[in-house]
Amino acid sequence: MASSFKTFSKKQKLLLTWWCNKKYKNHDAIICDGAVRSGKTICMSLSFVFWSFSSFNRQTFAICGKTVTSLKRNVIFPLIDNLKSIGFKCEYKITANYMDVYLKNHHNRFYFFGGKDEGSAALIQGITLAGVMLDEVALMPRSFVEQSLARCSVAASKFWFNCNPEHPFHWFYKEWIKKTKEKNIFYLHFTMQDNPSLSKQVRKRYERLYSGPFYDRFVKGVWTSVCGQVYPMFSVEKHVVGALPDSFERYVVSGDYGIINPTSFGLWGRSNGVWYRIREYYYDSKLNGAHHTDEEYYRELERLISNLSVETIVIDPSASSFIECIRKHGKFTVTQAKNDVLSGINLVSEALNKNKILFHESCKDSIREFFTYRWNENAKGDCVKKENDHAMDDIRYFLSTIMDEPSDSFFVLSAKRD
């Protein structure tokens, strides 16, 4: 059944026509994000088809969602009904997951793909596209999205992205929304007020349903962290500094070593009873496509320390080969970290509450992980999700091993959970 439109808002009209607007048509892509029920999905899917017929004939396109099933339900079936109602002919091939769309003497084909996990990238590999629309792109793995974009090799092809917000350190937010000018992208942000088909009563109901960060994300359409953070007390305003003290009394390095998983090192300096994370090193072999050897990591460690007099390097005791590598060079001492997770989290929480640890603004991976490190709400006991935790682990090792000393007058309290 075709959607019933009372009228289109100014922003919806712009979404429907941006590709023929003199001001915006030369952009390589469009991103629409914002609140739930803001009317961006149906307008984007219609605009995507309209643009394809204005620019191409007998070309191939892709429409992608989290799964093919959800894509058909939320995008394809309403799109087909609306296209038919305005004069397009649609031939939907159920088993083959594509549709042929006709208008007068023009014909284009649209394939449907689901990007639910890392293996999904292989499904779209090999096809040549004149354009791709990615619905709920923030729910898709980066590998699938980048493979989809790589398929668009036809001249004048464009990318179409649509999503509701996630946390502010999500890869799509950082790599695409924050880089719209750099990547020549037209960006449109939607709120519920941009959907005139949504009654005032329904908008009020959504506003009553949510509060706090969920209200910001679903109603206002803001990229923000929600509950479940391990360290909800962490604040950029309180714990991140742009300037460091002129001198430090002590220096220590903490590290979480990984072969397949990321490796994280942090250089700490103590000044007037406060420990500062002065700078850090973070390497993700999966993201960079190459593994480092122990010797390569040791050279990065030397670069991180420079000519400072470091007391010791605190590292996970399971990193036996790297510990041996450090000791072999004979330049630094190594301390095997205390590795009780929950007591370590308590120590980090208390240090944050008392402003006993601060972070230089260059320590971007630590700052990112503070917002994405989460409790596992599905576990039977208190445990954290094993993701976005590598800088978190190296910070925990530091607190558990160095700051948990009698001379620091440091006490363990329970960390409050949301």
Give a brief outline of the structure.
This protein is of the alpha/beta class.
Structural write-up:
The protein is an alpha/beta fold and 418 residues long. It has 15 helices and 15 strands. Helix 2 packs across helix 3 (68-85). The radius of gyration is 26 Å and the shape is elongated. The two termini are 42 Å apart. Mean pLDDT is 90; it is low at 406-418.
Main traits of this protein?
eight-stranded mixed beta sheet, alpha/beta, 15 strands, elongated, 418 residues, 34% helix, seven-stranded mixed beta sheet, 15 helices
Helix content: 25-40%
Distance between the termini: 42 Å
DSSP strand content: 15-25%
| Low-confidence runs of at least 5 consecutive residues | 406-418
Total of helices: 15
- Described by the principal axes of the CA atoms, the overall outline is elongated
Report mean pLDDT, rounded to a whole number.
90
Helix and strand run: HEHEHEEEHEHEHEHHHEEEEHHEHEHEHH
Topology:
Elements lengths: L9 H8 L11 E6 L5 H16 L4 E6 L2 H18 L3 E5 L4 E6 L2 E9 L6 H4 L6 E5 L6 H9 L7 E6 L7 H5 L9 E6 L9 H10 L2 H7 L17 H4 E2 L8 E7 L6 E9 L2 E10 L1 H4 L5 H12 L7 E3 L4 H10 L4 E3 L4 H13 L3 E4 L3 H9 L17 H14 L15
Parallel strand pairs: 1-7, 1-8, 2-5, 2-6, 6-7, 9-15, 10-13, 12-15, 13-14
Antiparallel strand pairs: 3-4, 4-5, 10-11, 11-12
Helix pairs in contact: 1-2, 2-3, 11-12, 13-15
